[in-house]
């Protein structure tokens, strides 16, 4: 599958890593093989709309202005429109592109909440956030694993899907195995703790999708 619009090498690498992590999380969530493929494909093109964002804004090293932030936020709608126009069969990918910045508490771009967000978008959002934290960006240095653990734990069931967050934290060794060697991690110190699933343990994205008539892939 090719991008219909060019992305920078850095953004393309982010999409590849997010797709790999989404594939892992979907498998851990016991999704069917077709759903794993759909989720992986959707994650790979989730940021396609960034091809339309000026590099001066996308890679600005300092804080964004209010107007610049609004421009950045258009990448989700642009991505959904691009996928719908050029790949009409990729309905789920278009929805994920549109919704991957939505948050359970309604603090995302569109203000969608909880069950209003496609389950695949909820999964990809966790992978997207993790990759954004562990890798350097123009505006931030990479976070350490301990800091990422703390942040994701705090955001579980608040902004991010708690089941998916706990899957990621429970399988951190497998997650980090996806990442290149230049990320220096002291596994003896940072890979510890048992984040066992609680509450809606079996309600992974595949469950949501099978039991909802609102979402079609």
Mean pLDDT equals 83
The structure class reads: mainly alpha
User: What is the number of beta strands?
Assistant: 0
Number of helices: 11
CA gyration radius, whole angstroms: 17 Å
Distance between the termini: 17 Å
Characterize the overall form. globular
Number of domains: 1
Biggest sheet features? none
The CATH architecture can be given as Orthogonal Bundle
CATH superfamily: Hypothetical protein af1432
Outline the low-pLDDT stretches.
184-205, 207-217
Task: Give the CATH level 1 class.
Answer: Mainly Alpha
Q: Which H/E pattern describes the elements?
A: HHHHHHHHHHH
State the share of residues found in helices, binned by percent.
Answer: 40-55%
Fill in the keyword field for this structure.
mainly alpha, disordered C terminus, 217 residues, 0% strand
Overview of the molecule:
The chain contains eleven helices and no strands. Helix 1 (9-28) packs antiparallel against helix 2 (33-44) and helix 7 runs antiparallel to helix 8 (162-170). It has 217 residues and is an all-alpha fold. The protein has a single domain (9-208), classed as Hypothetical protein af1432 (Orthogonal Bundle), CATH 1.10.3210.10. The protein has helices spanning 9-28, 33-44, 55-58, 66-86, 91-99, 119-134, 145-155, 162-170, 172-176, 187-190, 205-210. 54% of the residues lie in helices and 0% in strands.
